Amino acid sequence: MKKILLLLSMIFLLTGCYDYNELNDLDIVASIIVDYDDNKDNYEVHLEVLNTADSETEGSHLVKGIGSTIEEALNDTFHDSYNVPFFSHLTTMVVSKDVAMNDMTNFYDYLLRDTDFRKDFQIYVTEDIDSILDYVPKKEESFGENAKKLTKTMMDKNGKYKTCAFREVVYHYLRGNTYLLGGIKVEDEKVTIEDAYMFKDNKLVLEVDEYVPLFMNILYAKNESFQIHEENTYLFHDYKLEREIKEDKIVLSFKGNVRLLNVYDKDSLTSEELKKLEKDINRRIEKLFNDVIEYSKKNDIDMFNFNYFYYLHHPKLLKKDTWKNVEYEIKSDVNVREKGMLLEAIEEGRDGK
Q: CA separation (Å) from 237 to 62, 146, 304?
């Protein structure tokens, strides 16, 4: 019996797994770039495939496919290839503005159903797809990874940028919510991200004001800090925006800390000047939040999905335009500290405070 078991074990070890692929037989996909062909009759898809050979001087190359559906176009990319596309390292998907302005529901459905695709890749819109197709990443780099790193840097730097990972898009898509996708292009051989586009019913409907992504990030707690540059530079951190949904009112309470990064007209501020500045900043935050909500009403788009929040608390009272008709109350209560917070804390400790 032991001999039989040993023989069976050896057979399994020698034959290997049924669906096993050698690394050299895989094309590791970092990005998917989607546009229409010249006649706009078909999708044109480019896959950014990583160069894994040591002899390569560039980080990736593109593989092209065309089809009447996104599935056909993706299948066409490897129609004449012996290699198998491997999507588990996919970091970025870019769609042209033309593609984004059409209903992308079927597009999302396919990506959601196909188990080959991971769900945390980021999605962008571009008005200059040629700049991305012409981009040549350095060895051991890729367009997709560079875009992902730059997005994180932009988020940490000022908070005024927003794009969605695929799982976020699906979250909003299944609830009928609006969502934002960021703009991307290549300029002077560098990946550049800017602008943000509002999607409603899975179509691009509006390029939005820069404070819309900021407010969206704060509302959904998507960034840890942000900066506002005016006469001085303010860094907001350790903050929280709480929502209270009443029957006739939505109350937004913003609390946190502000670090004053620079003071242009003097080296330091007195305690009275800091109190005055703190009051002024709170007033500005309240005005900013009110302005972006009014901007949403002006464009007749529930940009921040207040109807969805209202539905969670008062489902029987919800109407199509509830978000436009309820009152909004904004409360800001942030604490301002001057630059050099460590020295300030030491001085307070000396005084026994």
A: 41, 26, 22
Amino acid identity of 335?
N
What's domain 210-353's architecture? Answer: 2-Layer Sandwich (3.30)
pLDDT tens for each residue of the chain, 353 residues long:
444 444 444 444 444 443 444 556 688 999 999 999 988 889 999 999 999 888 888 999 999 999 999 999 998 988 766 778 888 889 999 999 999 999 999 889 999 888 888 889 999 999 999 999 999 999 989 999 999 999 988 877 778 899 999 999 999 999 999 999 999 999 999 999 989 999 999 999 999 998 999 999 999 888 888 888 877 788 898 999 999 999 999 999 999 999 887 655 555 677 888 889 899 999 999 999 999 999 999 999 999 999 999 999 999 999 999 999 999 999 999 998 765 444 444 344 434 44
Dihedral, CA of residue 199, residue 205, residue 207 and residue 212, to nearest 10: -50
b/e map of 21-40 (b: 16 or more CB within 10 Å)? Answer: eeeeebbbbbbbbbbbeeee
pTM of the model: 0.84
Structural domain spans, the chain = 25-208, 210-353
∠ CA 167-168-171, nearest 5°, is: 90
Q: Give the torsion sign (CA, 181, 186, 190, 194).
A: negative
Burial of 124 (0-12, 13-18, 19+ CB in 10 A): buried
